[in-house]
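The instructor's notes for this session suggest beginning with a concrete chain rather than abstract definitions. Hand out the sequence below and ask the class to guess, before any prediction is shown, which regions might be ordered.
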Amino acid sequence: MHKGQLKSWIDNKGFGFIEASELKQDTFIHISSLKERSRKPKVGDFIYFEVEQQSNGKTRAVNCRIEGVASKALKRKKLHVYKSSSAPKSKAILLFAVIAICAFAYQRVDLKTQRIPLQQYTAPKIEAAPPRTITKPTTRFFCDGRQHCSQMNSYKEAKFFIQNCPNTKMDGDGDGIPCERQFRYF
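After discussion, reveal the predicted structure:
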């Protein structure tokens, strides 16, 4: 630690030079090295300091204190609790995903139920269909949830399922002939 006297000080720029008898040249001092002091330095103050060599070859005073000047009372710093920054991001991503899903669902519902203004809408004419007679099947087959050709044992069974059971997937081309590949020669 060196002791020297402040030779010059430029207050508006915040720097000056210290003259020390044990050093060959004056040492640069910046206000930032005195930040814990209760007042700014004045020309003629005795300053205790350490010397730091800068990259440009010049010296600089660091860890400085002014003789006879008390340091500022240290303020207690508030401890900052840093929360994980990923939590708000994940909440934002989740919110965005929910909004996107809702918008997609709304668009799908809106496409299926496009509304026609009342002035342009004319009700379709409904013609009376001839009365159907529902006959009970007299076969030994019954609807048990099977839907595909691979589950059928015969052409008659497949024909029964396609005519009497809902949600069957055995007539791909809609011609009324079920399982055409499986029962080619019926």
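Then share the key points. DSSP finds two helices and five strands in the chain. Residues 6 and 45 are 5 Å apart (CA to CA).
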